[in-house]
Design brief:
single chain; about 425 residues; alpha/beta; Aspartate Aminotransferase, domain 1; Aspartate Aminotransferase, domain 2; 4-stranded mixed sheet
Length: about 425
């Protein structure tokens, strides 16, 4: 069969909904200044779907540095990959500061978080090595492991007994293959909002020989006393071998980094094909990231504002009887019973009648009879925003239980 004929015959699990969903449920356009209120299809929405955790996207100091850096450098500088012609003092300075913040010997900048994690995994392990990973790891970790030709074992989400069983299997196999063991987990799991049990995983290093790689995309800048992440929150920064963070969440930018021992970071620096053969991060983005990191480190009140909104929202949801799982991070899931068509109608109702914009997750990410709404509180939300949202979801819950969303159209009470 011709490749294009095959594509025409099956657009994929998401693509099959393209004609009905595009522009509204998928690829929606949020317009205007990034913040708690933006415009969707000509109407102002209260937005709970942006990872602008501590409000840096439109922070005046950030906007000033971003604008001045773009004028000073242009978006082209430096030209070329860093190994050849794309190295600057700005890149080196950001790496030094990130390494210091994470209490690691060195750090390496990456053009993208998703691509970066894939490349880190690809370069760390060979066919003799074994990967042990949490069942709910992000897609970038899963895709990185797909490139791994060696063995990999999955453990049930945050189940330390099951992790230990997989470590026993991996240890036996590594003794035969002569390879090593890499444990991969997330600091904050981006869907459920619960934390990887980093403290308990680190303790297992007393019994088993392995290294830990933590993807802390949602924890960097939000978790820990200084915002250094989930490893700081648990007090195990020294026990995490490789710390991976992104700029796309709390930093409200683009790019990422990996921090760890100097010898390992230098190995990645000279072997990661996704960086060796890719253009360097533009200087304005790097200079902007330096300002963002400075604000994370010197303005704890931004994080305090975030957590005030988080606690108000999550406590309010619990008080109203909502199931928000085991989240102990800003990520706020709301679990309800229902099918995919009902989820579609709830989103329509939220946007068209309540002017609330949030994300929804349905099967196969969650069980068939579960609808999961995912709210991301930020430092720029207000207590009034929280109250309005709590009241809206209380009404939505009643309508869902009464069957108002069954069918192909929203049925209002």
């Amino acid at each position: 069969m011709d490749i294009f004929d095959k594509i025409q015959a099956s657009e994929g699990p998401l693509g099959q909904y393209r004609k009905d969903a595009h522009g509204y449920f998928t690829f929606p356009k949020l317009e205007g200044e990034i913040g708690a209120r933006m415009t969707f299809k000509g109407r102002e929405m209260l937005v709970w779907s942006l990872n602008n955790y501590i409000g840096l996207a439109n922070h005046p100091e950030v906007r000033k540095v971003d604008g001045e850096a773009a004028v000073r450098w242009g978006l082209g500088y430096p030209m070329g990959a860093r190994m050849m012609s794309g190295q600057t003092a700005l890149h080196e300075e950001l790496e030094r500061r990130l390494a210091g913040f994470e209490k690691k010997e060195d750090a390496y900048l990456l053009n993208y978080g998703y691509q970066g994690m894939i490349s880190v995994i690809d370069n760390l392990v060979n066919r003799h090595d074994i990967i042990v990973y949490d069942a709910e790891c992000h897609a970038c970790i899963v895709d990185g492991m797909r490139m791994h030709v060696g063995k990999r074992f999955v453990y049930a989400h945050n189940d330390m007994d099951n992790l230990e069983k997989q470590l026993m299997r991996a240890t036996r196999l590594s003794q035969e293959s002569g390879g090593g063991i890499l444990v991969i987990t997330e600091g904050v799991f981006g869907m459920s909002g619960d934390l990887g049990k980093l403290d308990e995983i680190v303790k297992l290093k007393n019994k088993y020989a392995f290294r830990i790689l933590v993807d802390d995309a949602h924890g960097f800048g939000t978790m820990g006393k200084s915002g250094a992440g989930t490893s700081e929150h648990f007090g195990v920064m020294d026990g995490i071998d490789l710390y991976f963070g992104t700029f796309a969440k709390a930093m409200a930018g683009i790019g990422g980094f990996v921090a760890g021992p100097e010898i390992v970071i230098n190995y990645l620096r000279y072997n990661m094909r996704s960086q060796i053969f890719a253009k360097s991060l533009p200087a304005p983005m790097v200079e902007g990231a330096l300002k963002r990191l400075e604000l994370i480190q010197t303005h704890p009140e931004l994080r305090e504002k975030l957590w005030a909104v988080v606690h108000a929202l999550q406590n309010g949801l619990r008080e109203k009887g909502f199931d928000i799982g085991k989240t102990n991070s800003p990520v706020t899931p709301i679990y309800m019973k229902g099918q995919v068509p009902e989820a579609t109608n709830v989103i329509l109702d939220l946007r068209e009648h309540y002017n609330i914009f949030c994300s929804v997750v349905v099967y196969p990410v969650v069980p068939r009879d579960v609808i999961m709404f995912r709210l991301i509180p930020t430092a720029v939300h207000t207590q009034d925003d929280v109250e309005r949202t709590l009241n809206a979801f209380a009404e939505i819950k009643e309508k869902l239980a009464a069957g108002k969303y069954v069918g192909d159209k929203v049925r209002m009470a």
